[in-house]
Amino acid sequence: MSEQSIVLQGVGVGRGAVWGPVATVRPAPEVPADEPVPADRAAAKEKVLDAFTLVAKGLRAQAQGASATVADVLKATAQMADDPALREQTGQRIDKGEPPMHALTAVVASFAEMFTAAGGYLAERVTDLNSVRDRVVARYQELPEPGVPPLPWPSIIVAPDLSPADTAALDLDKVLGIVIEQGGPTGHTAIIAGQLGLPCVVRATGASQLGDGDIVALDAAHGTVTLDPDDETRAAVETRRAGLAALAEATADGATADGHHIALLANIGTAEDAERLTDAAVEGVGLFRTEVLFLGATTAPTVEDQATVYTRALAALGGRKVVLRTLDAGADKPLAFVTQAGEENPALGVRGFRLVRHAEGLLRTQLEAIARAAKESGGTPWVMAPMIATVEEARQFSAMAREAGIETVGVMVEVPAAALRAKDILAEVDFVSLGTNDLAQYTMATDRLLGSLVDLLDAWQPALLDLVAATAAAGVETGKPVGVCGESAADPVMALLLTGLGVTSLSMSPSAVPAVRFALSQHSLETCRAIGEVARKAPTAAEARAAALTLVDPHVREVLALD
Q: Is the pLDDT reported for residue 189 higher than 70?
């Protein structure tokens, strides 16, 4: 890298690297400070409400041509544009004599404040809420909607943030990567970039200063964006791209160098996601987030509706392992028809399996649908419940699932209490799966969607490693499977550590599988165990990862840019 190069630091998503010209998104239209009060308030109100309707219609039209993951969030954003409270409060302000766009801005600001205070999933939706506002303002002013412009050539998209609608508008044949100044590693942009296999850097401070046509090198593995990269940096990018492309061609099952098998699985949210895995080199699905079917719905999906989706997914995988997580709603994923209002701290409230306390029928209906899908598809799904904290809860879920006809029953370990008593919980079920995202959140008392505290949520935090190790040890002792389906499974070095601890399967975004497969294939089980041992002796997260890296093969470190 030349001395003149400016390097922006952020948080990387994936391991890819790319270089090319910048393309910035169209800015949001400005609301005039001196916007006048309309002479005809009724006509102005009608024009604003029409703008809401047009925005919702446009978002749904985009959803029709988008991938399943993007389509789901586009539909949710369209529902936001249709939200009666948002429209009604804006109209009321106009009726009282406020300028239309000032009225809209004030209402959206109040909603954004509520979402931010609620935290979690709702806080992440503030970007979508602001996107609706900006689109309505543009429609009202009869201007082009803000977002990504048509790309004349392959480019790296740079923006303060991207809404799902912006992402859905991308011409993927011409998008090299994504850089955003805001957001976080679990936000919509990061998730969609991971699903699409696009190199991405979020929280890249200073990215908004980049301009159209600037040449940058994006390195997701190191979370860097280099302005005016020199020949050496460009060559390193091309070497990484070629190396990762070669790894993606491998199709062998996951295993260490000495033949110890580790199942490499995919995380999905829809039947369409499952169908896209038909030719993918994964051994099945380790996490089917079934709540995607529920989010945004005003009433619970019927047994028939759910069974149709689950049957499609099971049939698409053709007998491969499929682990379905029952409804994980509440807290950051509220449902209109079940989430309780007024919880002061919803992340610690009625969420996940705890919904059975006041909506048992919701879970029983889902279990019936899964059992029906198993019969119709000929598959044998594994089914697990989220947010299990006690042996009693594990026992209760196991009884309900088996009564419904589910053969293989498990639970998620996301609460420290469950990790500490994993052996007793495994006495009640057939397997457990570690959700390291939530486990980190509850271990470190830190909102996992709050980007400013991302260091506390590091998967290498010693306390978190201890809980993972305790759960894996319980699996080894009882002879039952212990999987990991949190983001840590996608880290090649962490994958080695987890294997060494006794974890039996790793589930991640399909685009992350090749690097993990390669890392495993180059290390023996003995080395994996040694990595786990040295990492757990370290007093800090940084020292734990550094200690693990000393035992990683130098060639693997070079190919995957792990240093």
A: yes
Task: State pTM to two decimals.
Answer: 0.76
Q: What share of the chain is helix, strand, coil (3-state, %, to 5)?
A: 50, 15, 35
Give pLDDT, residue 28: 82
41-140 carries CATH number 1.10.274: yes
Q: What is the mean pLDDT of residues 29-40?
A: 89
Asked if residues 548 and 496 have their Cβ atoms less than 8 Å apart, the reply is yes
The contacts of residue 495 (CB under 8 Å, 6+ apart) are: 262, 489, 506, 516, 519, 520
Alpha-helix runs per DSSP H in 182-230? 188-196
Q: Average pLDDT for residues 302-327, to the nearest whole number?
A: 95
CA separation for the pair 208, 229 (Å, rounded): 18
Q: What's phi and psi for 332, nearest 5 deg?
A: -80, 0
Whose structure tokens read 């006809």?
A: 405
SS3 state of residue 68: helix
Specify whether the CB–CB gap between 216 and 18 falls below 8 A: no
**Phi then psi for 67, rounded to 5 degrees?**
-65, 165
CATH of domain 6-26+147-233: 3.50.30.10
Under the phi-then-psi rule, with left for phi > 0, alpha for psi from -120 to 50, and beta for the rest, what region is 217?
beta
Burial track 402-412 (b if 16+ CB lie within 10 A, e otherwise) = bebebebbbbb
CATH 1.10.274 domain span(s) along the chain? 41-140
Cβ atoms within 10 Å of 281's Cβ, excluding its own: 17
What backbone torsions phi and psi does residue 144 show, to the nearest 5 degrees?
-60, 140
Q: Tell me the average pLDDT across 304-332.
A: 90
Q: Which range is least confidently modeled, 10-24, 140-154, 276-290, 321-335?
A: 321-335
For the chain, give every residue range classified as CATH 3.50.30.10: 6-26+147-233
Q: Which of 234, 219, 250, 193 is nearest to 563 (CA)?
A: 219
**Which tokens is 415 given?**
């609460």
Per residue in 38-75, pLDDT (tens digit) is 899 999 999 999 999 999 998 888 778 666 666 777 78
Cβ–Cβ contacts within 10 Å for residue 20, how many? Answer: 20
Q: Tokens 């005039």 map to which residue?
A: 32
Catalytic residues: 188, 485
For residue range 448-504, what is the model confidence (pLDDT) as tens digits? 666 678 788 889 999 999 999 999 999 999 999 999 997 789 899 999 999 999 999
